[in-house]
């Protein structure tokens, strides 16, 4: 458009270009017209599910150079139809936040500082504690000799951010371990 002159003022451009309501090209600057969405430069698009609640809104994750550059609602999702709530719309910030914890942290009983653990060590600690609790709290029979085959020392609370398949597998795992206190946040 060149140097700014009164002939280039938006209201005159609107009239000259037949854009009387000012909703088209007449009111956009060269800078605005040169912008392209981050999504157009993505290497690939991955379909996913929003991690925040039990609704399970579909998301399209745009990836460039193995880094998430944008997350939007998936129009093919049957229940969200491309829409995301404010938390779902901010999913990219969750993924790319510089304050996101990406290591296993552990604070010993009575401790005041966090220490880093490798995943294998952390998993072994969880397994050891799970099995020890199950062994110590196992109830084979009640006081009348009726078979119980359960533990009251272990409970499971599934999250509403998990999908049905994950909650189903968690239920099967804890039932097989003898736990009877199994619940899901979505039902509470």
How would you portray this structure in words?
With 188 residues, this protein is α+β, with helices and mostly antiparallel strands. Strand 2 and strand 3 form a beta hairpin. The protein starts with 9 loop residues before the first helix and ends with a strand. It has a 3-stranded antiparallel beta sheet. Strands 6-7-8 form a 3-stranded mixed beta sheet. The protein is built from 6 helices and 8 strands, in the order H-H-E-E-E-H-H-E-E-H-E-E-H-E. The protein folds into 3 domains: 35 residues, no CATH class; 59 residues, ADC-like domains (N-terminal domain of TfIIb); 66 residues, no CATH class. The protein is 29% helix and 26% strand.
* H and E string: HHEEEHHEEHEEHE
Shape, principal axes of CA atoms: elongated
Report the uncertain regions: none
Chain-averaged pLDDT = 86
Topology:
Blueprint: H1 10-16, H2 30-34, E1 44-49, E2 58-64, E3 67-73, H3 86-89, H4 91-96, E4 104-106, E5 115-117, H5 119-137, E6 138-141, E7 147-158, H6 164-176, E8 179-184
Parallel strand pairs: 7-8
Antiparallel strand pairs: 1-2, 2-3, 4-5, 6-7
């Amino acid at each position: 458009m060149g140097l700014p002159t009164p002939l280039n003022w938006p209201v005159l451009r609107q009239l000259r270009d037949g854009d009387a309501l000012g909703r088209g090209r007449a009111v956009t600057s060269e800078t605005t017209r040169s912008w392209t969405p981050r999504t157009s430069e993505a290497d690939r698009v991955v379909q996913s599910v929003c991690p925040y609640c039990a609704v399970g809104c579909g998301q399209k994750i745009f990836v460039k150079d193995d880094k998430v550059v944008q997350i939007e609602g998936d129009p093919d999702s049957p229940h969200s139809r491309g829409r995301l709530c404010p938390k779902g719309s901010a999913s990219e910030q969750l993924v790319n936040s510089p304050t996101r914890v990406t290591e296993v942290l552990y604070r010993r009983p009575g401790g005041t500082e966090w220490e880093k653990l490798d995943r294998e060590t952390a998993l072994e600690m969880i397994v050891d504690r799970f099995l020890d609790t199950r062994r110590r709290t196992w109830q084979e029979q009640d006081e009348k000799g009726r078979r119980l085959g359960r533990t009251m020392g272990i409970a499971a609370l599934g999250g509403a951010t998990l999908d049905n398949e994950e909650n189903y597998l968690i239920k099967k795992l804890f039932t097989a371990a003898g736990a009877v206190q199994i619940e899901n946040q979505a039902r509470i």
